[in-house]
Amino acid sequence: MRIYLPLAPEDRPALLAARREIDLPAGREAWAVTAEARSDRPGQDIEDLEYDAIQDAVHVALQASAPASRALVIAADVTDQAVEPHTASGGAYGVRLRTGARAIIASFHVTEQDARTAEQDDTDPALLWFDSSEGPGALVHVDRPGA
What is the top-level taxon of the source organism (predicted)? Predict the structure, then answer.
C-alpha cells in the first residue's frame, strides 16, 4: 500500500543518507487510499483518490512547518497489513501503522510555497517531485527559506 508521510525529524537521517527504505514506528500516522476510501467513492479514478490522500498529508505537513519553510511528504510502500484506518484524526484517508514497518521510499514531494504563503492561498499546494534517491536534494528545498 502506498502511504504518504509528512516529514518528521526522525526521518531526516534516512533522507540525508539517500536511503531507499525508512523504518517507521508503530502508531505513526500517514495517509493512504484504503479499500474503505475506495468503496466510499465508487467510480472515482484511483489517481484522483491518490491526489486527495497526498494533499491531506501535505496540509498536515504545512501546519507543522515553520512559516518560512516548505513542507515535505514522503511517498512510501508498506504491506497492507502494516496499516489500519485512523480516520478520527486523519480524515477519510487517515491510517496509522499497526506495527513497526520498513517502508520502501517511492518519492518525495515538496511544496513550492512556504507554509505562510500556502496558508493564504485557497488552492491545493503545488508540489515539486523528487525521486527516491534524491532525499538530500528534497531536504535542500525544504530548508531553503522563502517561497
Answer: Bacteria
